[in-house]
Design a protein that fits this description.
about 260 residues; alpha+beta; Jelly Rolls; 8-stranded antiparallel sheet; 7-stranded antiparallel sheet; 2 helices; 17 strands; about 40% strand; globular
Length: about 260
């Protein structure tokens, strides 16, 4: 193999590795297809959570009903600590089953934790259908964050929604950390709400990395279904460009 062919092959391998990293799935069993003794594999129950297997929200496979028995009921998964850019997706559907287990009624609750197990981004649907994020003192709506919400999402609806939370967690100081929210109504094929550049965090100190996703049921007024949960790291394109440049320079020097 001549130098040109070798260089092309190595650049191709580097590109494939980069693309593979882009599509790497951080969570295990995020589609809830694997269950053992009535519990979803790779997920941890806490505080009396009682998940159950149902048909997937896309009409096939499986999904998980999030139900609980007390105000601290949660289902969570720890994953390899992640920094930088990422994209999180979760499909959900609200139900009318279950009782209110806590004093702070809500119909959906998902939050992220950092590597120190401290809550960072904390999101919910309140009992009137507004999607909200906690800023450390108060719950803020998408409108508060400069965005919009075109429909209220309540348990009276049987629609299926997809929550996409993408953003960037600054591993240096956290000062540049932010996230974007999009809620898509999969049933009606329309955007239900969105906001960009959100800097609301439950604890300001927990903005450097991600290491946990948790679904809370304890403060919810009813059960809900989740499916197709994923968190994917998204390395910056500059990393690929830099890697290729280093590789090319190295090969050119070797040829000389």
């Amino acid at each position: 193999m001549n130098d040109y062919s070798a260089r092309s092959a190595l650049i191709g391998l580097l590109s494939v590795a980069f693309v593979s990293q882009l599509s790497a799935q951080t969570l295990d069993n995020g589609d809830f297809e694997s269950w053992t003794s009535g519990d979803p594999d790779s997920w941890t129950k806490a505080g009396g959570i009682t998940p159950s297997e149902v048909t997937g929200l896309d009409g096939s496979g499986s999904a998980a009903i999030i139900a609980g028995t007390n105000s601290s009921s949660t289902l969570y998964q720890d994953f390899t600590t992640m920094t930088g850019a990422f994209t999180l997706n979760v499909d959900f559907q609200l139900l009318t089953t279950g009782n209110a287990l806590g004093s702070d009624s809500r119909t959906f609750n998902m939050f992220l934790r950092d590597s120190g197990n401290v809550i960072s981004a904390n999101t919910r649907l309140d009992n009137t259908g507004n999607f909200q994020m906690y800023d450390g003192s108060n719950w803020k709506t998408l409108v508060d964050a400069g965005g919009s919400q075109s429909e209220l999402i309540t348990s009276a609806s049987t629609d299926v929604y997809r929550l996409t939370l993408d953003g960037f967690f600054d591993e240096q100081s956290g000062s540049n950390s932010y996230y974007n929210i999009t809620i898509y109504n999969l049933t009606d094929d329309v955007v239900a709400g969105s906001a960009t550049g959100i800097t609301y965090f439950h604890y300001a100190a927990a903005r450097n990395d991600l290491a946990n996703i948790t679904f809370g049921r304890g403060n919810s007024s009813s059960d809900y279904i989740i499916d197709n949960v994923s968190i994917v790291p998204e390395p910056r394109a500059s990393a690929l460009i830099g890697g290729i440049c280093v590789l090319v320079v190295s090969l050119v020097r070797r040829r000389a």
